[in-house]
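Record 1 of the preview.
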Amino acid sequence: MKIAIIGGDLRIVKLAKILAKENTIITYGLENVAELKNAKNIILANSLEEALKQANIIIGPLPFSKDEINIVAPFTNNNIPINTLMQNMQTKILIAGAISNKIKQLAEDNHIKIIDLMDQEELTVLNTIATAEGAIQVAMENTQKIIHGSNVLVLGFGRVGKAVAQKFAGLSANVTCAVRKPKDFAWVEVYGYNSININNLANNLSEYDIIINTPPTLILTKERLKYVKKGCLIIDLASKPGGVDVNAVEELKINFKWALALPGKVAPVTAAEHINIVLTKILEELSA
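->
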């Protein structure tokens, strides 16, 4: 099978090498990656048009775009406009991740079939492992205390929140989960963590050494951030717009890290392996 890989971060680079074991891979937007040069079954195309015309399956990055204008492509000196990509695909199949509704509509207008990898439950669950371990790495690199015995507040108890709470509890942190739904309070109790109503956050925020946000909705407003104690580290794992008032943390001089796309940064090989598991099933279904 001939597959075109357009743009992407380090996990897509690792994915290209995995897929090249059984397929011919044509890449564009990865020309600055030394390990792909002269790699077996990997062709570095000189243009986007050249890469697209040789394959029916197109794989893009995760996330696909940050500005809805160009695709994410940190390993090239050139922009790769989404419009140009769509216009040259000629009714092919695009597989990428975290694709906005605007881009999905553009694909539909160009008669392109879109498969969003982040709509695949299996991948989103697997990604929580690297995200949680990455959050631990961020915490260790940006605090002056050990995690053992630290008071950690996890905002939200979805897939990521559960994984983060489990990993930090495994390091003997005192974990509290901020939730709002009755069923989430019940699950927090089952897991053995402390709980607090996310709607009632205020002066109680002063109790925590590390606060980790997971929902992509504003929770830590300026008014709430005023209660955060000096030295507290806030980590936002949520995609844009995030859950923290970024202007307020700067104004209040709070130690803040917006840690996006952690699987691709802290564990690109594992992230690529997880993508490949899901991708293999998708390709089998497409060829059936």
